[in-house]
Specification:
Elements: E1 6-7, E2 14-19, E3 22-33, E4 36-45, H1 48-65, H2 75-89, H3 94-112, H4 122-133, H5 146-165, H6 192-205, H7 208-215, H8 223-227, E5 234-236, E6 242-246, E7 248-251, E8 254-259, E9 267-271, H9 273-292, H10 316-328, H11 334-347
Antiparallel strand pairs: 1-2, 2-3, 3-4, 5-6, 6-9, 7-8
Helix pairs in contact: 1-2, 2-3, 3-5, 6-10, 7-9
Amino acid sequence: MKTKYISVKGHPHIYYYHNDKNKLYRARQKKTINGQVLDFVKNGFSTIKEAETWLNKQISEANDLNITDPTKFTVKSYWRLYYKEKIGSGDWTADSTAQMERVFRLHILPRFGNTKLREVNRMSYRAYLNELRNTKKEDSTPKYSKAMLGNIHKALSALINDAIYNGILISNPLKQIELRSQKQARSKQISHAEYNKVLSWATDNLNGIKLAMFLLPTMGMRHGEVMGVMFKSIEEQSDGTMYLNITRARTQNAPQGKSTKNSYSVRRIKAFTSCAVVLREALRISKLRYKNNNKLPSPDDFIFVSDKARPYDYSRLTYLYRDVSKATGIHVYPHLFRHAFATFANEMRGELNPRDVSW
């Protein structure tokens, strides 16, 4: 039976219809843009507002993507074009995409979205950075770090440089702007005494999978590399020594895993016997969890899983380090222990290889 669409009074281009006794809405509008007739249509909206919001967004984006006069580009319209090109070409990873989306949505577009691209100037941009520098949290501490200001600056600069490449702009007015922040950067230093105290507490109070997860950054592994350890990553020797072959990483935006940060990150790490004991126990528990859920783990399955044999979320390692920080009174996080690995290994150069050392 053909669906009957009925116009909604007072809402042009919006129709309602019934489907399995449910009242739904349809948006449809034909519009000519640069001589091309485009038909915008979609069904299944629960409310009139949802239908109108979708339709207005589609028309707005179509207008942006069909701009032929360079002087009419706003930051928002060029962002849409830039974003579509980067996604289509595959230039951005899932993490890069998520970061750019977040930075533009939360910071750049609210302030500069409606500004003509050619009118973005050094004075207004520096004033914006100063506002961010002086923004405080509820406890009166600075809200934005230098790294966060750097992310904003890199994102907008990348957009402008792309516009230069495409002949829309001549120069980048944001060049050589000094980035400062009142917020202190997180310390990447930890003393031998603090390091040993934290490791001692973790060894005494954590076990199995949690202890293995906690210790792997001490082998120089990145957060995503820890969460990306698979059964095939571990190679055990007859003398009880283990090697970890680092080829994949899991992140918040790539939960199924992705390639490592760069080609140099693909490496083989040697774990001493003491660490191998912990990893062996983690493997035993992981296999048991898969078995208890009627699953047979494959070489490509992740080791660090929950009681239901589901891979732990990327943030689980962060929360684990927070728990240890609270218990020991020493602020630690995965990247800090990765830095500690590099520092202590370098101090012992000649005795240990910084690329292979464990704890």
